[in-house]
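User: Could you go from structure to sequence for me? I need the amino acid at each position, not a summary. Structure tokens:
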């Protein structure tokens, strides 16, 4: 197991990384641009991550959280807020570990750990983000597991794992699970998240036009007068 540096408090400054460089082949069009009400899916997820980061930082910290969106080389993205930095994968199509490397590198010196998300989880709850950050403790990584599956794009990573990520990529080991094996990783079970997201909808992504249509219809129904948001 490779040890990575961490601050004495076990927490530190938190940032966020949103991966938007996927090919969206099953959807047939870029998922980052899909509209959900007045926002794109990318805007929806970025806002949830930011809100969760602010809650984790506490009321006494007025500093805007460091946020990074990772795109494929030359990819067009929806407009980003001024405080959100765009970076690109070094190599396109190599999976989430490559995108994580770009995102974590962009946060060096700006954050000690980051919540990493895909851009296609519009039901992500800010409280879920906050809880995952709170569970980091003295670990290098905290990753949720549900239905016997790890969710590396709903997890928290210390920036210090970046050399391990780069070493794995250099050796052609592109599965995030290899990273979990080589660092101090805490696996978070559903029970630790039940009070912030009982159905674990924060882990639900949307990959097909039918799934997107059902989601849009559901959210439109929530916005009708008399319905709960």
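Assistant: Here is the amino acid at each position, in order:
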């Amino acid at each position: 197991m490779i040890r990575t540096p961490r601050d004495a408090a076990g927490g530190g400054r938190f940032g966020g990384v949103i991966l938007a460089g996927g090919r969206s082949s099953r959807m047939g069009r870029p998922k980052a641009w899909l509209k959900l009400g007045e926002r794109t899916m990318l805007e929806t997820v970025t806002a949830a991550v930011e809100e969760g980061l602010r809650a984790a930082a506490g009321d006494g910290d007025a500093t805007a959280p460091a946020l990074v969106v990772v795109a494929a080389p030359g990819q067009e993205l929806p407009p980003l807020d001024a405080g959100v930095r765009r970076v690109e994968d070094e190599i396109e199509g190599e999976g989430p570990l490559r995108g994580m490397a770009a995102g974590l590198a962009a946060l060096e010196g700006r954050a000690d750990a980051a919540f990493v998300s895909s851009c296609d989880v519009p039901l992500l709850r800010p409280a879920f983000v906050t809880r995952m950050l709170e569970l980091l403790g003295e670990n290098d990584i905290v990753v949720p597991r549900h239905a016997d599956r790890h969710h590396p794009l709903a997890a928290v990573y210390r920036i210090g794992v970046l050399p391990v990520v780069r070493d794995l990529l250099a050796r052609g080991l592109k599965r995030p699970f290899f990273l979990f094996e080589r660092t101090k990783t805490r696996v978070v079970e559903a029970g630790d998240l039940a009070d912030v997201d009982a159905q674990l909808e924060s882990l639900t992504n949307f990959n097909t036009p039918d799934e997107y249509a059902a989601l849009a219809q559901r959210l439109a129904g929530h916005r009708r007068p008399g319905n709960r948001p």
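One structural detail worth keeping in mind: Confidence is low (pLDDT under 50) at residues 1-10, 224-229.
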